[in-house]
Design goal:
The protein is of the alpha/beta class and 196 residues long. 33% of the residues lie in helices and 24% in strands. The structure holds inosinic acid.
Length: 196
């Protein structure tokens, strides 16, 4: 089965390809010859994910999926949430975003946070959504050099490491995206078995 993954983020493509067997062929936007920055104009992850998968489905006519992720910090009333990519400004700098979060949480004992991912799949013209949540906490300072985004300041529950200290396989075990992708893969496998 071929699916177009509506993202320009190579890190996300690497994460899902490391989880998928040969049964599914993931085509990136670049490989599909599409060079657009898909807008994320809505105030929920669900609506933004649908915007992205529907846009790419319209452009390619192919089964497509997208994902939208937000970091929700309890002491910041759920911020940055849908604003995660541009929390410190339109330059969308991961370094600036982390600096802003660490400053806002200075002297804040409640470090509880979660990453939440929503995947939107358009399969044979119908939409399906899958959610994955990683509960955890915001570290007092950056740790580790792997991963991307907020990985150096997020430690998932059940680990003593920041995401940025984990290799891909370990991060996928704990991560929001890993959990959502596993639901997507299970669903696609069920669909395939239903057809055979
Ligand atoms: P989006 O889903 O690409 O809009 O991502 C929103 C923001 O969350 C971006 O700043 C990403 O860098 C960040 N982000 C998304 N997934 C992760 C992750 O797995 N680890 C750390 N940061 C992430």
């Amino acid at each position: 089965m071929t699916l177009v993954f509506a993202t320009n983020n190579d890190n996300k493509v690497r994460e899902i390809r490391s989880m998928l067997g040969d049964a599914f062929h993931i085509v990136t936007l670049q490989e599909a010859g599409i060079d657009i920055d898909i807008p994320e104009p809505h105030d929920t992850l669900e609506a933004n994910a649908l915007e992205k998968s529907a846009t790419i489905h319209r452009m390619t006519g192919k089964n497509s999926f997208s994902e939208d992720t937000g970091l929700e910090i309890d002491a910041l009333n759920g911020e940055p949430g849908v604003l995660s990519a541009r929390y410190a400004g339109e330059q969308k700098s991961a370094e600036d975003n982390m600096t802003k979060v660490l400053q806002l949480l200075e002297n804040q004992p409640n470090r509880k946070a979660r990453f939440r991912t929503v995947i939107s799949l358009i399969l044979e013209g119908q939409e399906y959504q899958f959610e994955g949540i990683a509960e955890g906490s915001i570290l007092p300072a950056r740790k580790g050099g792997k991963g991307f985004g907020y990985d150096p300041i997020f430690q998932p529950e059940g680990s003593t490491k920041a995401f940025a200290e984990m290799d891909l396989a370990e991060k996928n075990q704990f991560s929001h995206r890993g959990k959502a992708f596993r639901k997507l893969i299970d669903f696609l496998q069920q669909q395939q078995h239903g057809k055979s």
